[in-house]
């Protein structure tokens, strides 16, 4: 499973890109707003740091307006992926952009039928949200398993980006369900090297070395 970083913070991307495990970046309007900069300006900086798919989300609205905004964003760099909302207008925009050869990521997916619509619209990526699924009292692990089943039994090329990752359990569930990608906040990515027994083992070895 590939690891993307889910942030618009340039320092986080700079540091994480040095670890050699991050192959893409996803952003959303909330993450961009936190940085207090224009979407285009942030995306221009990110494409210089990571050589992989960089998701930039358009403002939700009519397909015609989203396609217009998408064309501007797509011109920034060949790695820019247009993130679209899971609405009928988003689906229409997805089909249009796919036909133009622009890569897309349909976001805010919470069911198999939504995933199916996006796959049929030719989405390059779909983003089911794990944390928000659990928040609403559903089981995110089953969501990812079901969407993996959907894409594999029907042979869709669309790749699954497990998103709204809040903890290590989400990563384990996404990986074992067969998600193609997990997009992970910086804090959780850093935790991925940890295990209490690793920490304890290192202390035992360090103490032994001193003797
Ligand atoms: O990738 C989507 C993600 O940024 C949403 O995360 O924690 O706001 O549900 P969260």
Task: Please explain how this structure is put together.
The structure is a single chain. This protein has 211 residues and is of the alpha/beta class. Helix content is 53%, strand content 18%. The chain is built from 11 helices and 8 strands. Strands 1-2-3-4-5-6-7-8 form an 8-stranded parallel barrel, surrounded by 7 helices. Helix 1 packs parallel to helix 3 (39-49). The longest helix is centred in the last third of the chain and has 15 residues, at 140-154. It is globular. The N and C termini lie far apart (41 Å). The relative contact order is 0.13. The model has no long low-confidence stretch (mean pLDDT 98). Bound molecules: SN-glycerol-3-phosphate (G3P). The site of SN-glycerol-3-phosphate (G3P) has 10 residues, from helix 7.
Q: State the total count of DSSP E strands.
A: 8
Within the largest sheet, what's the order of strands? 1-2-3-4-5-6-7-8
**Largest sheet composition:** 8 strands, parallel, barrel
Kindly estimate the percentage of residues that lie in beta strands according to DSSP.
15-25%
Number of helices: 11
Distance between the termini: 41 Å
Ligands present:
SN-glycerol-3-phosphate
Topology readout:
Blueprint: E1 2-6, H1 10-17, E2 22-26, H2 29-35, H3 39-49, E3 54-57, H4 63-74, E4 80-85, H5 88-99, E5 104-109, H6 112-120, E6 125-128, H7 130-135, H8 140-154, E7 159-162, H9 168-177, E8 181-184, H10 186-191, H11 196-210
Helix pairs in contact: 1-3, 4-5, 6-8, 8-9
The site of SN-glycerol-3-phosphate has 10 residues, from helix 7.
């Amino acid at each position: 499973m590939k690891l993307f970083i889910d942030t618009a913070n340039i320092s986080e991307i700079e540091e994480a890109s040095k670890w050699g495990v991050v192959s893409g970046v996803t952003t959303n309007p909330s993450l961009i707003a936190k940085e207090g900069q224009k979407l285009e300006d942030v995306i221009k900086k990110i494409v210089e740091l990571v050589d992989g798919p960089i998701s930039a989300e358009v403002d939700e609205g009519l397909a015609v307006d989203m396609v217009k905004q998408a064309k501007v964003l797509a011109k920034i760099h060949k790695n820019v992926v247009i993130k679209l909302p899971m609405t009928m207008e988003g689906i229409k925009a997805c089909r249009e952009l796919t036909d133009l050869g622009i890569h897309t990521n349909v976001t805010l997916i919470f069911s198999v039928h939504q995933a199916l619509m996006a796959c049929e619209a030719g989405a390059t990526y779909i983003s089911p949200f794990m944390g928000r699924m659990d928040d609403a009292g559903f089981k995110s692990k089953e969501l990812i398993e079901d969407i993996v089943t959907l894409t594999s039994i029907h042979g869709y090329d669309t790749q699954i980006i497990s998103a709204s990752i809040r903890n290590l359990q989400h990563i384990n569930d996404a990986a074992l369900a067969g998600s193609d990608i997990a997009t992970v906040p910086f804090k959780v990515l850093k935790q991925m090297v940890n295990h209490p027994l690793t920490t304890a083992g290192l202390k035992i070895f360090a103490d032994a070395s001193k003797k």
